[in-house]
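re: the backbone from monday

yeah here it is again, tokenized this time
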């Protein structure tokens, strides 16, 4: 798959502190790419280099198949974690003004703003001042400003901050729709649930270095621990537990309801077929699935290992 963004051995140092150390990432075009890491890991420093706010001490950034150039900024949309709007300015007037700065004509700016205001249900905000809006409302406005010029690369730094669950879900759907329309999204977030739901690829940065990267599904399978969720009819797990224990398996987290018993079986990562074959003669299986580790579990494990 063609990469829209590539960093090659990017280094950055502030004083005696190395914030980026030989960072190499490849962001495939049309994907959602998660940029993960604890606070102070170097994520924001890398984002600022991509946006040409600062420059790397060494290394290169390539965009659309060539070295990043100043004019490429028109093809990038950036929503920083620290929001910045003119508080005394009216919302509609401000969004149109910023759209013009991004290269849209006056007529096209008005058209795009009306489309997005209608989509977000905020047409009535046009003549309200920014300072009258809640943090979540301001976040909606800033997101619209970031995307209305239809950038090829959209960089979102903690985009769900300040949103309630309903608006966060709405924003997630808009991001997925933009991806489906061909926009590439670089997503920096601490929300691991969002990573699992949305990201195709990730890079995990810690202490200035990239310590894990790749496709999300591949990483989750790579770190699987051999846990399986088993549900069966009835509430007598005695025979099953004896048989599986004798075979070297272990049952935990036993829960029961009126009809079914639900357990976790600990085995080896590739024991699924063998485990199911031993189970079927003993109980009526309702469901059986491998329990892959969450990205949150993998995140904590890799950071603690380092």
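seq for it, each position gets an aa:
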């Amino acid at each position: 798959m063609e990469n829209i963004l590539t960093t090659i051995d990017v280094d950055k140092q502030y004083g005696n502190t190395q914030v980026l150390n030989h960072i190499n990432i490849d962001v495939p075009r049309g994907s959602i790419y998660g940029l993960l890491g604890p606070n102070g890991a170097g994520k924001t420093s890398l984002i600022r280099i991509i946006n040409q706010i600062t420059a790397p001490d060494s290394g290169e950034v390539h965009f659309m198949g060539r070295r990043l150039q100043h004019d490429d900024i028109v093809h990038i949309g950036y929503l920083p974690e620290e929001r910045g709007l003119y508080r005394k300015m009216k919302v509609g007037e401000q969004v149109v003004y910023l759209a013009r700065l991004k290269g849209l004509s006056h007529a096209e700016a008005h058209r795009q703003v009306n489309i997005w205001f209608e989509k977000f249900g905020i047409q009535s905000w046009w003549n309200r001042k920014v300072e009258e809006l809640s943090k979540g409302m301001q976040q909606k406005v800033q997101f619209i400003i970031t995307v209305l010029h239809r950038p090829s690369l959209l960089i979102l730094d903690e985009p769900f901050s300040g949103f309630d669950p309903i608006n966060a879900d709405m924003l997630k759907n808009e991001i997925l729709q933009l991806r489906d329309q061909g926009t590439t999204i670089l997503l920096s977030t601490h929300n691991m649930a969002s990573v699992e739901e949305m990201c195709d690829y990730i890079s995990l940065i810690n202490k200035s270095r990239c310590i894990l990267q790749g496709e999300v599904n591949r990483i989750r399978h790579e770190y699987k621990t051999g846990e399986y969720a088993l549900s069966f009819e009835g509430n007598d797990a005695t025979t099953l537990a004896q048989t599986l224990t004798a075979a070297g398996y272990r049952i935990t987290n036993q829960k029961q309801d009126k009809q079914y018993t639900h357990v976790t079986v600990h085995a080896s990562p590739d024991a699924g077929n063998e485990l199911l074959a031993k189970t079927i003669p003993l109980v009526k299986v309702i469901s059986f699935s491998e329990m892959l580790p969450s990205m949150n579990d993998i995140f904590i494990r890799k950071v603690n290992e380092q």
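The mean pLDDT is 92. DSSP finds ten helices and 14 strands in the chain.
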